[in-house]
């Protein structure tokens, strides 16, 4: 898919407008943007002294941490499934 074929979706995240380009459907991009915005606002509420850059970095760290945990859980479940199939 060329650059001109990609979807362009404007979203608001933490009071900033971003144009997201990609292959994902609009509803998916809006959902992701909404979740990022929500997480940033939660972090700001708990840490009112942080600036936007630090909030963004903490949001990224939290999100990647959740992603890694989910990948580990998935690998464990796949392993358990394979062991059960072999029995």
Question: Your description of this structure?
Answer:
7% of the residues are buried. The protein has 87 residues and is an alpha+beta fold. The chain has a two-stranded antiparallel sheet. Helix content is 64%, strand content 16%. The chain has one domain. It starts with 6 loop residues before the first strand and ends with a helix. Helix 1 (26-46) packs across helix 2 (52-86). It has two helices and two strands. The model has no long low-confidence stretch (mean pLDDT 95). The chain is flat and about 55 Å long. The longest helix has 35 residues, at 52-86. Strand 1 (7-13) and strand 2 (16-22) form a beta hairpin. It has helices spanning 26-46, 52-86, and strands at 7-13, 16-22.
Brief descriptors of the model:
single chain; 87 residues; alpha+beta; 2 helices; 2 strands; flat
**Which strand order do you get reading across the main beta sheet?**
1-2
**SS summary, helix count:** 2
Number of domains: 1
- How would you sum up the global shape? flat
How would you classify the quaternary structure? single chain
